[in-house]
Amino acid sequence: MNDELYMKKKKCLFFDIDGTLVDEQTHQIPQSTIEALRAARRSGSVVFINTGRPYSHVSAMIKALDFDGYCCGCGTEILIQGKPLYRHQIPQPVCQQIKEKADACRIDLFGENTPTCYVSLGHVENGFVKSMEILRSEGFNNIVPWVDHQSEFVKFCIAYDQHSDLEAFKLFLNEMKFEFIDRFDGFAEIVPQACSKATAIDVVRENYNVDLHDCYVFGDSTNDLPMLKHVPHSVLMGNGTPSLKPIVEKVTARIDQDGIAKALKEYGLIG
Asked: Are residues 118 and 73 in the same domain?
């Protein structure tokens, strides 16, 4: 296949948000990234968000960039052109079991849903304080105490400390067929094993009839691992988790050093 024909084939691009598109220090999107994303769409690429956040927690700043769609909640919610394509809801009895086990293991729990998220606190000092401060600074106030045990969720986040029985909780999660994604010290995501950022990519590319080799993924942290391993054209931000470097095709510059724009240019996806 010649290069000209290859470049005419539709490409699907998938971007994590935090640490990839949004600078976690300034909480802003670099102008070079905004211009690069717009150029990619003008060139005919399909451009998607692929985030661990539920759709309700994707900021107006991100939505203003007019992405073709959103893969949210680590593959548990997918929207294309504003319309729901896929949603994996955890049944209420299972949510309740997870809540009870978290309490027994002295772990704080954050149940993610659209539009409301529920938080169960009291076991870990300052467990979700920083996360909730960031969300509220972005305009999200739909976070309420977990008192309604009839709720269903798409995924969970947990906060733990040295007093938590993390090993017992992880064993329970494995038995319940959930994935434990350790993000950083004291914080992790809990996702159904049937869902990930990689499974979301397969749903989207099949919808557009795009081959896996015509997909490109951009991430920075451990919850990006499934998509970085799954897609041959994988890009780690220069500010990303160092342990991910051996498994990606390319390590680009830091987010604040035009990393997205440089990678897209190197792949020939923008001029």
From this structure: no
